[in-house]
Amino acid sequence: MIEFEKIRWKNFLSTGNNFTELALNGHATTLVIGENGSGKSTFLDALTYGLFSKPFRKINKNQIINSVNNKACLVEIEFKIGSKNYLIRRGIKPTVFEIYVDGELINQDSKAKDYQEKLEKQILKLTFKSFTQIILLGSSSFLPFMKLPAAHRREVIEDLLDIQIFSIMNQILKERYSENKTNISDNNQILNLNLEKIDVQRKYIQEVKEINSDKVVDIRKLIETTNQEMSDIDLKVMALQAEVKSLSENIKDRDNLVSERSKLQQIKISIESMIGKIGSDINFFVNNTNCPVCKQDIEEDHRVEILHNRESVKDSKENGLRELNDHLEDLSVKLAA
Which residues form a coiled coil (predicted)? Predict the structure, then answer.
């Protein structure tokens, strides 16, 4: 889990040459309030720019740097993941992009694009799209999950559950399938060429028969050789067709398993959410004897009946969740085979 500790910026948008700094780890929850134009949105823009090289709002890159100073634009973000402390420094005029882990600068030999990819995939494990869909939700630009394009929804879910490997595996299988289709097409062309050769040979034999009967024996040997080649080719074609059929079935079965597991994981999230809600209800009726709406006392019999009902529903959901987890584990074993 990412724990943001501190962010500071200068010469960023409308801020001047002195650092504006916010401490985000002073309390369990940090509330940022202020009048219009006081810099609340600038804080969000600085956060996403520091992490992903693009502001939260739709702002051109040449508008990011302060138009008065027009230099020394810099954003620094400190955060913690597990036991490691990170510092990200990103700026314009001069261009700056540095990643520090526990005070040590990560090797910058790679290109900026590869350096950014290392930050997103190995450290944050989030892309800009996922970050603004899961962590940073703005009322002006937030798009509900179900309204996202299918590819973006898949990307968000894969980042959230850390299951990008299945998309990679699916792409590899598609490439192999495409390669096999190409091989089959090439072999069919070879087969057609050989069939044409056979046809030519047969015509040639007929012509030779009409011209010289003495060459019949030699021509028959040639026919036998050609027929053997045809038989060998037919066997190869049959073997290739069987292999293609087997590969197609394996790909289809795997796609079905991946789809089923994705759906079951969504159901699992929904069940866990319901169990959490029911648990909250049980805790309320265990610890409270007054109605939260009308402030009147809840009759003991009614309270006991509600608790019994909630606990029964919770037990049922938890049993279903255990069965669902077992089924998901079976699917994972099948996919790993």
Answer: 223-250
Instruction: Answer for the pair 335, 258: CB distance below 8 angstroms, yes or no.
Output: yes
Which tens digit of pLDDT belongs to each residue from 202-216? 888 888 887 777 777
Domain housing 19: 2-125
For residue 22, give the nearest of 38, 1, 37, 35 by alpha carbon: 38
- Give the tens place of pLDDT for each residue, 249-300: 666 777 887 888 888 888 888 888 888 888 887 888 788 777 666 667 777 7
How confident is the model over 144-193, as pLDDT tens digits? Answer: 666 667 776 676 676 666 666 666 677 788 888 888 988 999 999 999 99
Whether 76 contacts 67, CB under 8 Å: no
Contact 103, 74 (CB under 8 A): no
Whole-number Å distance between alpha carbons of 100 and 115: 12
216 and 79 within one domain? no
Residue with tokens 């526990």: 102
Q: Dig out the tokens for 142 from the structure.
A: 């937030």
Q: What is the CATH number of the domain that holds 98?
A: 3.40.50.300
151 domain-assigned: no
CA 103 – CA 67 distance, rounded (Å): 32
Residue-wise pLDDT tens digits, 73-87: 999 999 999 899 999
